[in-house]
């Protein structure tokens, strides 16, 4: 790996992007991300993949302008970039973009391909492609349309202007704005909660959400089927028994449901 | 009725939930809500159903944990709970949840099944099911996906964290945050306006909204058909004549359209 | 033209609505707007159409109440009004509503038919039709459902209450609230950026957005096809060469991508 570095710890893979000078999505970077993402299909250990950048001002710049042309190589590279977006969207693991810098064009599309995205006051998001005579090529326009509605999407795509993390949260480009000073503890909280889950839990909710957005009734049927199956599991009974023992279905739930969950986990780990 | 109390006044049915100790959705409560909701199908008097709680801290807790299992009785009760959600969604009357306490799991799903939901600073909303090894079972994940988009929904479902009423309004879990001190007058205003309408008006708009969300063109066709039919009614002509007589289509509309409606109503009630 | 005045300048057509006393959507005004909008189909000069009002307090009032009836003429006029909404939605040019006054009923529907809508502190938006015994007839309910979700839409349609520009922005009725004092400079900025584009750019993004909202995958396929075609154009290569020459793919992008675009434009205009 020349453009990304990967570390593994407790089911969390951290991918640090480092493609000087400004983290452009070159074909090398695209290929390395694709290879890693596809390797996760058969990975039984990794639950969460966190994407970060080593660069001080860029999270991830756009697709390498040198491949945006009519040559066979250029068109093939653009298609590989597009596949990278769909590969990330199809991951069974929970993907998280941690954005502390600029993410325009393909960088913005990369962020939106991830399941969750958190960004700081140093982040900037934009899809300025039209000013280079091209549309977005990694679902940028598709995602803008679906996330912010047709009017705000059209304005953003024609202007190509930057959005701050707060604006990006309001427009559903990212999940949440997190001040840089709180980023580490916020991310640690997210990872600690999700790490208690199984990969199949993440997959189940991704499937229900995907189905529900296309068809409300189909989503509702899938959800109920999963619910009835999961209700039968011994694991469910064990958790519920411990949960009730420690104050489930009593007043303690009102103000301290987290405490009940903590005591339940302790009980079960005995 | 052991777990709910129902009062009727001027076309408004008020259902007060009272299932000690903490308003858990037991099979008794589910059955009583289902029986009442289904009885409304042939009700020609009731226009609005308001759901409230007698409990100080809980609006409505989750589905009774004692039925979440693989027994025949447990699975049947879970399915009844799921039917309760779809029954509420299918009501012809306007359903309103007034939430002044905790609504997690099935309680949160109950709130989202209602047409409108108002909540105070005492409210808390969450879908923490995954931490008991199950998904939501009453369309919680379905509604989160459709109301807040896939990223924010996935975060909320994996974390299972509480949302305040203000957060719930921003995420479309509820219609509006209303401070407790203003709740009675706010609700009185809503009821006084909607009480001037007919049940068929509520049904018409629910149908158009439902159709429009699935297919924009189908919704537009339905809306125009209703418009042309309704335009022909004598009632429409009578209102329009009185409306114009009292300043419709003049400058008075700009700053005092409510006053024109008041004068129109007076004129018609002569 | 008796009810609208049209001026053309640098690819921007400005339509000023002036139908005293309060800019009601009379059949004359509807016919003149329809004739103008349909004339734009073969117009190769106009990129942007800005709709403004000459009236001090009304942007555009509702459909003329005198045509809302069961007569043949009334029903035909109502259908013409409905066609006006679909005609505006189908324009290839970028349509912009600049709202500095009241826009209720058909006026609100006109605003939502436009691609972009900006409104000041003097604006008010509402769909109060149900209080005249009719539903919306120009996709008002359809648009409310799709833009603000079923709960907030149902509340707004049953109450018929006014929304301020800030509220309308949050509910996606308009694109953005702009203080009256900043309106001229804001609009000049929008027009100056969009004027650098071609009509086919606007059409392309409208098509991708439209397809994406109906079907995410279909939108993604259309976007990629456009991307690969556009990448082959000489115009694209010329812009990219100049963009790279002036600091594209370097640190300059981080804080001054607008400067690179300015220098790129200068280079290309030599």
UniProtKB/TrEMBL annotation, chains A, B, C:
Listed GO MF terms: isomerase activity
GO biological process: fatty acid beta-oxidation
SUPFAM superfamilies assigned: ClpP/crotonase
Keywords, comma-separated and alphabetical: Isomerase
InterPro entries in alphabetical order: ClpP/crotonase-like_dom_sf (IPR029045), Enoyl-CoA_hyd/isom_CS (IPR018376), Enoyl-CoA_hydra/iso (IPR001753)
Endoplasmic reticulum is among the record's keywords: no
Family matches, as PROSITE patterns: ENOYL_COA_HYDRATASE (PS00166)
Similarity field: Belongs to the enoyl-CoA hydratase/isomerase family.
Name of the molecule in the record: Enoyl-CoA hydratase
């Amino acid at each position: 790996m020349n453009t990304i570095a990967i570390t593994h710890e407790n089911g969390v893979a951290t991918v640090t992007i480092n493609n000087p000078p400004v983290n452009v999505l070159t074909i090398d970077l695209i290929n390395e991300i694709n290879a890693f993402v596809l390797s996760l299909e058969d990975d039984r250990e990794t639950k969460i993949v966190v994407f970060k950048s080593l660069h001080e001002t860029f999270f991830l710049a756009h697709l390498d302008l040198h491949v945006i042309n009519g040559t066979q190589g250029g068109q093939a590279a653009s298609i590989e970039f597009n596949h990278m977006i769909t590969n990330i969207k199809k991951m069974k693991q929970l993907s998280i973009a941690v954005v502390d810098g600029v993410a325009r064009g393909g960088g913005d599309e990369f962020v939106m391909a991830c399941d969750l995205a958190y960004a700081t006051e140093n982040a900037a998001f934009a899809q300025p492609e039209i000013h280079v005579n091209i549309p977005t090529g990694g679902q940028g326009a598709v995602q803008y349309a679906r996330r912010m509605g047709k009017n705000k999407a059209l304005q953003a795509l024609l202007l190509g202007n930057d959005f701050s993390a707060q604006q990006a949260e309001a427009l559903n480009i990212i999940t949440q704005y997190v001040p840089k000073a709180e980023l580490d503890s916020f991310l640690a909280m997210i990872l600690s909660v999700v790490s208690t889950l199984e990969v199949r839990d993440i997959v189940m909710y991704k499937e229900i959400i995907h189905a529900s957005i296309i068809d409300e009734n189909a989503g509702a049927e899938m959800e109920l089927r999963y619910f009835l199956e999961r209700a039968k599991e011994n694991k469910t009974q064990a958790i519920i028994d411990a949960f009730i023992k420690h104050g489930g279905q009593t007043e303690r739930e009102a103000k301290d449901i987290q405490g009940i969950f903590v005591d339940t986990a302790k009980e079960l780990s005995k």
